[in-house]
Write a structure and sequence with these properties.
The complex is a heterotrimer of chains A (391), B (269) and C (351). Chain A has 13 helices and 14 strands. Chain A is of the alpha/beta class and 391 residues long. Chain A has two domains: 29-166 and 329-359, 3-Layer(aba) Sandwich (Rossmann fold); 168-325 and 363-388, Rossmann fold (3-Layer(aba) Sandwich), CATH 3.40.50. Chain A has an eight-stranded mixed β-sheet with strand order 7-8-6-9-10-11-13-14, with helices on both faces. In chain A, helix 4 (75-91) links the parallel strand 1 (63-69) and strand 2. The longest helix of chain A is centred in the N-terminal third of the chain and has 26 residues, at 2-27. Chain B has 269 residues and is of the alpha/beta class. Chain B folds into two domains: 1-87 and 175-269, P-loop containing nucleotide triphosphate hydrolases (Rossmann fold, 3-Layer(aba) Sandwich), CATH 3.40.50.300; 99-173, no CATH class. Chain B is 31% helix and 23% strand. Chain B has helices at residues 50-58, 80-85, 103-107, 118-121, 128-141, 159-172, 189-204, 216-222, 245-253; strands spanning 12-21, 24-34, 39-44, 65-70, 73-75, 88-91, 177-181, 208-212, 225-230, 233-238. Chain C has one domain (33-347): Orthogonal Bundle (ABC transporter involved in vitamin B12 uptake, BtuC), CATH 1.10.3470. Chain C has helices at residues 6-31, 35-51, 58-83, 91-106, 122-146, 151-170, 182-185, 200-218, 220-230, 232-237, 242-268, 279-289, 301-320, 325-347; strands at residues 190-193, 196-199. Chain C has 14 helices and two strands; from the N terminus they run αααααααββααααααα. Chain C is mainly alpha-helical and 351 residues long. The longest helix of chain C has 27 residues, at 242-268. Classes of the chains: A alpha/beta (391), B alpha/beta (269), C mainly alpha (351).
């Protein structure tokens, strides 16, 4: 009996262990950074704001804003946090910084949104993890908070008041156009290193499928990264045959990028075009390609999105041939200022993007080998991008 | 039966042992003597202080006051290890064997033998071969022949065989006293009989044994003397010859008292 | 009951006869717990080869060994811990802390203003990084032994602590390959055996398996690890200091994790705090698939090594077969449950 009981308990422990290391680890919505922010500014004042008045912006209390990113370790989000903090200090906004524990930690973001509602803040800047946070965002808006999506639009886009973003589809399209121009009719043997294969996230499919569309490959379903035909013809530029060897999930980090690239090379060593979801993934892919004896920039082209400092330095050094640069600092900065303006009684921002769905903070294609085929974004050389890079 | 002081030195003795746990009194001034080459049964109701007494001798508890002697020499045991060093081995009800380990590893658990030379000193290699051979010899010496394969995991053995392994471990290292805590509690009739036979064999080899048991028929079968514990004290020491099972139960429950002069405090063997 | 009819006796005999074959299998698995994972690995290799013959190309085999190196090394630590009936959820976090410490010590400038430690001798950096891992392991062991806390809770806590400290100390900055001295990346270099590329890190991992396999089998400390996990009370009563054994296991686990940090820098080519967040689970999966019992006291390192390879082989093989990643996750899940079920069954074996 005793033995059985112990086993039962141990089994439960295992089960819990499994859940815990996935979700417990994830949901303790990180907050080294938020506590730093709280310590640095008047957090107690912010928490007493709802008691003081129903309208958060009223009566001399500082305007409180939450910035909620996907995680606190990706340089892109770290830069975003820094940009927001700088703007907040400038205009006198009380900023609370928080994030999910990692990509995919929906609950961490939901908790932070609810905290912002509970504190009666004026607005939220969020890089939404997935559709799972939509309900929480609606709750926030119902409570009178102005919600701006940063970098990644919600799905559907009207869940938030407005989106400040780089158009990820356009960012993907630009590198796709570049790749088609560079290949100039040669057969494209493509590896796609994405973030997930088990979750549908707009930044993921928009960049990956935007890339294919940029090459002139038909994508039947934008949300499905496996929907394009595995072989066929690309039409941009000179046009030619293509083969998609693999769509590998990498978690958007170096180690995953390397593992994913290896698996793709194992499947087909003749890969000559590698799409990567971001630059850390590209570094991992570079490492695998070099280990396989490939010369990057000659045998194989690596393209990416983000335009972080290390990323555009890699463009200069030859590890990446083209990357779409985005401006997270600018996004966060503009976001903080917009909420301050609204809280002070000013007008909300208007959509400026081509499709009128969001406020476009712009994208630049960074490459030292510009192609005529690129129409989606302006092309600049690596030095320009280094000067304008974040992180 | 006239004298209450024996000329024979007890091999294990407790004098006025007291042990309390907060307000609960486990031992309330117990005296106990075990003489060489005898089986002393310790019986008593639950809470009479049997296990507390045993745990003092085995080093699991340190008595609050009172003294313990091994072979007339005063001892203090702070751990099971010290008790074992002092020559008192206890086979706990839980047997204290590691089920997944083999018989030889269990016999030598906590006192493993290393290989001679640099393999033992530098690489700390265990001398498995020697441990196995000696284990097998030990089991043969004890007349435990049912265990053929010394590399068998203990969990694959029957309850009686496990008991045999636990006892063999105690006997293996030349200890003077073996305390057996309810050795037959989990066993069937046949296995119990084998274990009782083993107890008698061990006594015949000159070992001194304290047997804790609830099972009166078994106690009367193998014990030379019976120490009856009651309310943290010694109620009486009798023999299977001097008193009946019913008498012993009566003493346990306090329904009967035995005058000191009718008790068997001296050795019978 | 006392006088069964002849019919039931026959039935019983028949039943017993059939069982004895199963019992023989059960007995064999009991004696060699790595046998079932080995069979799984062999079957998986055959299936994946049939699905895509590229699977067995030397290049792919070298990928598989390289992809196993991080989880494989960490799983040594996890095995030691699980053998004591414990669990270490902080393995991944400590490993990341350890490698970030190493890299930040070795580079010429660091983003960290909390720990202004940059510019150290590379060997010193490696040593201190491994020492950092040991310190983290010692903290786990201390909390578990001193305050009698369940390892699950302690390591759940330290998982967060080391993740946070990594962010606080090192500002979550990825240290790029070119910044890192070669000594730190040395384990990431390879040499060729024909077409097959062997990573130095893999060799180090295999050496560690050999060393710890030897220790577990042939030293008193190793035996005590099994005994403590098997039955802590019995071990204590047998004169083993269970606390000392458990503390030393977490300490040694920290050492292994620190070395794994070094291997990871080599394997990845940079030092990033974003290494696979599922490392903890993968190590536990490798250990369990490898036939080590989560209840402690039973298992082998060779089983864990096979288990770690099974994870990689399944992922890589299904990838080559063109299957979606979701199926890989599914396959690993099924394997884990099978492994635990087999473990339960084996425990009932009678020789």
């Amino acid at each position: 009996m005793i033995n059985r009981l112990t086993r039962g308990r141990a089994l439960t422990a295992v089960a819990v262990a499994g859940i815990a290391s996935v979700s417990l680890a994830a949901c303790s919505s990180s907050s080294s950074s938020s506590s730093e922010a709280a310590a640095g500014s008047e957090a107690p004042a912010a928490s007493s704001a709802p008691a003081a008045s129903e309208a958060p912006a009223g009566g001399g209390a500082p305007v409180a804003v939450s910035l909620i990113t996907k995680d606190s370790s990706n340089p892109f989000f770290v830069a975003m946090q820094q940009g927001a903090q700088k703007a907040a200090d400038e205009v006198g906004v009380d900023l609370t910084i928080g994030s999910g524990k990692q990509e995919g930690d929906d609950q961490g973001q939901i908790d932070l949104i609810e905290n912002a509602i509970a504190q009666g803040q004026a607005g939220i800047l969020i890089t939404p993890m997935s559709v799972n946070v939509n309900d929480a965002i609606k709750k926030a808006r119902d409570a009178g908070l102005y919600v701006i999506a940063l970098d990644t639009p919600t799905d559907p886009p009207d869940v938030v008041d407005i989106t400040f973003a780089t158009d990820n589809c356009v960012a993907g399209e630009a590198i796709g156009q570049w790749a088609a121009g560079k290949l100039n009719g040669e057969k494209a043997t493509i590896a796609q290193l994405v973030i997930f294969n088990d979750r549908v996230v707009s930044v993921d499919y928009c960049r990956a499928n935007g890339f294919l569309q940029g090459m002139g490959i038909d994508v039947p379903t934008l949300e499905d990264m496996n929907s394009a035909a595995k072989t066929g013809k690309y039409t941009t530029g000179a046009g030619g045959d293509y083969e998609i060897v693999c769509v590998e999930a990498t978690g958007a980090n170096e180690e995953g990028g390397k593992k994913g690239m290896e698996n793709c090379l194992a499947k087909n060593p003749d890969i000559n075009l590698v799409y990567t979801i971001n630059e850390p993934t590209a570094f991992g892919a570079d490492s695998a390609l070099e280990a396989a004896g490939k010369t990057i920039g000659t045998d194989v082209y690596v393209v990416s999105v983000d335009g972080g400092l290390a990323g555009v330095q890699a463009v200069q050094a030859g590890g990446i041939q083209a990357t779409s640069q985005q401006y997270p600092l600018k996004m966060a900065e503009l976001g903080v200022k917009a909420i301050k303006t609204i809280a002070d009684g000013g007008a909300p921002p208007e959509n400026t993007s081509a499709n009128g769905q969001f406020f476009d903070t712009g994208v630049t294609l960074c490459t030292d080998d510009p192609q005529d085929t690129v129409t989606a974004a302006p092309q600049e050389n690596s030095q320009y991008c280094i000067d304008n890079a974040w992180g | 039966m006239t004298t209450q002081t024996s000329t024979v030195t007890p091999i294990l003795q407790g004098k006025d042992l007291v042990k309390t746990f907060g307000r609960v009194v486990g031992l309330d001034g117990v005296n106990i003597e075990l003489y060489p080459g005898e089986v002393l049964a310790v019986v008593g109701d639950n809470g009479a202080g049997k296990s507390t007494l045993i745990k003092c001798f085995s080093g699991a508890h340190v008595p609050d006051s009172g003294e313990m002697f091994v072979n007339g020499e005063k001892v203090v045991f702070h751990s099971t290890h010290e008790a074992r060093e002092g020559g008192v081995e206890t086979v706990f009800q839980t047997l204290a064997v590691a089920p997944a380990l083999d018989i030889a590893s269990n016999l030598y658990l906590g006192r493993e033998v290393r290989k001679p030379g640099f393999m033992g000193t530098i690489f700390r290699t265990l001398d498995k071969k020697a441990m196995r051979e000696q284990s097998a010899a030990q089991l043969r010496n004890l007349g435990i022949s049912t265990l053929q394969n010394i590399t068998q995991a203990v969990e694959t053995l029957s309850g009686g065989q496990r008991q045999a392994v636990a006892v063999a471990r105690c006997a293996a290292f030349g200890s003077k006293v073996i305390i057996l805590d309810e050795p037959t509690a989990a066993l069937g009739v046949n296995e119990s009989a084998r274990v009782l036979k083993m107890i008698q064999d061990l006594r015949d080899r000159g070992l001194s044994i304290i047997l804790i048991s609830h099972n009166m028929p078994q106690v009367f079968e193998v014990a030379d003397r019976i120490h009856v514990a009651r309310l943290g004290k010694r109620a009486a020491v009798v023999t299977p010859q001097s008193h009946s099972m019913n008498d012993v139960v009566a003493i346990m429950t306090g329904a009967m008292t035995v005058p000191v002069e009718e008790q068997q405090l001296a050795p019978v063997r | 009951m006392s006088s069964p009819s002849t019919g039931t006796v026959d039935l019983a005999e028949e039943f017993m006869g059939r069982r004895s074959t199963m019992q023989r299998i059960q007995g064999a698995l009991h004696k060699y717990p790595w046998l079932s994972p080995l069979i799984v690995l062999a079957v998986a290799v055959v299936i994946f080869y049939l699905l895509n013959s590229r699977f067995l190309l030397p290049q792919n085999l070298s990928f598989i060994t390289q992809q196993t190196v991080i989880v494989g090394t960490l799983a040594i630590a996890q095995t030691l811990v699980i053998l004591t009936a414990g669990i270490d959820l902080s393995i991944g976090a400590i490993m990341i802390f350890s490698q970030m410490l190493m890299a930040n010590l070795a580079v010429s400038t660091t983003a960290s203003n909390v720990l202004p430690i940059a510019g150290q001798n590379p060997y010193l950096a490696i040593g201190l990084g491994i020492l950092g891992g040991m310190a983290a392991g010692a903290l786990n062991g201390f909390l578990i032994v001193r305050f009698n806390l369940p390892p699950f809770i302690v390591t759940l806590g330290t998982l967060s602590i080391w993740t946070a400290l990594t962010l606080i100390f090192f500002k979550a900055r990825t240290i790029q390959g070119p910044e890192i001295p070669d000594q730190l990346k040395w384990l990431g270099s390879t040499f060729k055996i024909g077409e097959f590329q062997l990573l130095y890190g893999v060799i180090l991992m295999l050496i560690m398996y050999a060393i710890f396999g030897y220790i577990l089998r042939n030293t008193a400390w190793g035996l005590h690890i099994y005994a403590v996990g098997d039955d802590p009370n019995a071990s204590e009563l047998s004169g083993i200091s269970t606390k000392r054994v458990i503390f030393s296991v977490y300490l040694v686990a920290g050492l292994i994790i620190g070395i794994a940090g070094w291997i990871t820098i080599g394997r990845v080519g940079s030092a990033s705090p974003n290494v696979d967040p599922l490392l903890n689970l993968d190590t536990i999966t490798a250990v369990v698939i490898g036939g080590t019992s989560l209840f402690g006291g039973r298992g082998t390192l060779i089983g864990t090594l096979i288990g770690a390879f099974i994870i990689t082989v399944v992922e890589n093989g299904l990838s080559l077969a063109g299957l979606d990643q979701a199926y890989r996750v599914l396959a690993v899940g099924i394997l884990v449950i099978l492994a635990v079920a087999v473990d339960q069954w084996i425990r009932k074996a009678k020789a």
